Amino acid sequence: MTTEHQASSVTAKKALDPVTFEVLKNGFTNLVDQMAEQILRTCYSFVIYNRDFSCAMCDAEGNTIMQGTQDISVHVGTLHLTAKAVLEDFGDDINPGDVFLVNDPYRGGTHFSDTRVVLPVFDGDKLIAFMQTNGHWADMGGSTPGSFDVNAKDHFGEGMRIPPVRIYSEGEYLKDTVNLLVSNMRVPEERVGDLKSQVEAAKVGERQLHGMIEKYGLDTILTAFDEVQDYVEKMTKAKVSSLPNGTWETTDYIDMDPEVGDGLIPIQVKMEITDDQIIYDLEGSHPYIGCFLNSGFGASSSAAYAGTKTFFPDIPLNSGFYRVVKVKLPENSVVNAPYPIAVTGFCSGAYEKIMNACFELWSHLMPERAIACSFNLEYLLIGGNDNRHEQTSYFMWYDWMAGGHGGRSDRDGVNALSPVFGVGLSVQPCEGQERLSPVVTSKHEIVIDSGGPGKFRGGCGVEKGGTLTDISDTVMSVCCDRSRSITWGLFGGLPSSPHGVWLNPGKENEEFLGAIFSNVKVGSGDSFTRPSAGGGGLGDPLEREPEKVLEDVIDQYVSVARAEKDYGVVIKEMNAELDQYEIDYEATETAREYIRNNRKDWLEEDAEKVTEMYHKGDIDKLDVIRRYGVILDYKNDELLPISTQQFRESMKKRSLSYWN
């Protein structure tokens, strides 16, 4: 059985003249962007302030008319489902002045933190549209501050599940209903502040739409609602029709099922193009797993939409796009987890794997826009008592990392950028974090050698560290992945580096916590650091011009040692402080020939032997990964044989098969 999500096609006859159509199309986009500006200026949460939100306008059937220009990618393709859920539950009982709240990931949402305000818009007694604002609330209750509990098996440990519920009834604020919800969340006054900010933003959209109706007339606006969707559908079909029919397949992985241990979790993505239609079929993906990295159908559909849209940047986004792109998701799987299976960590789990798999498939189809795998989204959450002031208060330090994007068809990947999950997110300013929470940032810098080697290098990751100050009853959690399914290269490129968090680095009680954990107790004076991965390399690193490798060394993106190990470029250091280096071209030719003659055999080397070499210090962590394709559990440096076999097969497909 599969769940197929697609929007029904609208076949309204073209009626608007080109000028009016273009004015209204852009006016709808501006309307949504105005809602976003309202949220940005009035929200309470630092998370939302750093742009973890999105907005949309939907028609009376719930179809998306337009999303904004800076919405984060994860919300793409889900907001119309929320509007339709309100229609399903309330039907004819929707009145002027009503406002609804919903965050249900089993009804087409993403995860419980993404909380949507849905405001129906009326012209007289006629329902004509929905305004929707979606913000990531920093806590939804549950067993862990920040509501990201790795150990949760079902949603009851993840926080409040809110099906469509009325929070304003004909203009009257239902305070008791809201209090019932936020009383089950940490820092409830902040949750109410964000709620009211989102409601007011939706009202901005409502006022803007009424202004357009007053100027152009209701019939013209409703016609434009249909035509902008038809326009996007026609534009998308024209693009797809220019491509060859065919089928393309690939597999990406989540690190593990914590209940099982060793073994990557496969997500299989098959893309079929038939004339002017795109169908993604994820049949064969792993059954849902025993932690929160699963994804619901709405989020997985969104990943396919966002992955596709990346290769069609000139097309506006509305439900016309969803008519062309269809997604089939196997039931009871890691990409279509049913109620009540835990899904809050979908963003670090299934979502980005689907999106990067789409990147790979489209890179074969559109090599001029090719991109290798990008680093994995990482959330670090610290919650507890802030004792810096006379009156103790509860704090939530909620941070996400920048990292490297994959090498591209004609240039290197971008350094220190938001994850593909949330392109549009801001990197949170350390000064703001330190003012709001008892955490002082000790470092925030680009990580040398973190970009995957390739003809076009992956972008570099970032290391961010901090120290906890005056706190009590505080715990730390992390939501991440790719400590084992390490960010891969493409077309001969090499992987980057694994994710993970260190507690008290450099001290006697130093501990590697890994890439996912929850409720680790921390106290005043404890410190932490975590490097994000870079992007995977694209193309054979032995084809990178030695002069570009030299520039990378000067820029401190690549070390002298790894320039030789990864690129076969031998560089002599004359004076590092003055950036004086020199390429030894003769030694470079010898080094490249040595790598070329041995690298295929390295991927066949006995994994136990490689592990022993690492333990002896003969090779380092990046050698283990990039040369030998071996995966270790870096909590104890033990070999993971099943994961190694799977990762090596991935490297042979994406890298080795392109080497001369």
From TrEMBL:
TM spans, by residue? none
Question: Any idea which GO molecular function terms this record carries?
Answer: 5-oxoprolinase (ATP-hydrolyzing) activity
GO BP term, example: glutathione metabolic process
Please provide, in alphabetical order, the Gene Ontology terms of the cellular component aspect for this entry. Answer: cytosol
Q: Sorted alphabetically, which InterPro entries does this protein's record hold?
A: Hydantoinase_B, Oxoprolinase-like
- Give start and end of each Hydantoinase B/oxoprolinase domain: 17-541
Q: Which PANTHER family match?
A: 5-OXOPROLINASE RELATED (PTHR11365), HYPOTHETICAL 5-OXOPROLINASE (EUROFUNG)-RELATED (PTHR11365:SF23)
What name does UniProt use for this protein? Answer: N-methylhydantoinase B
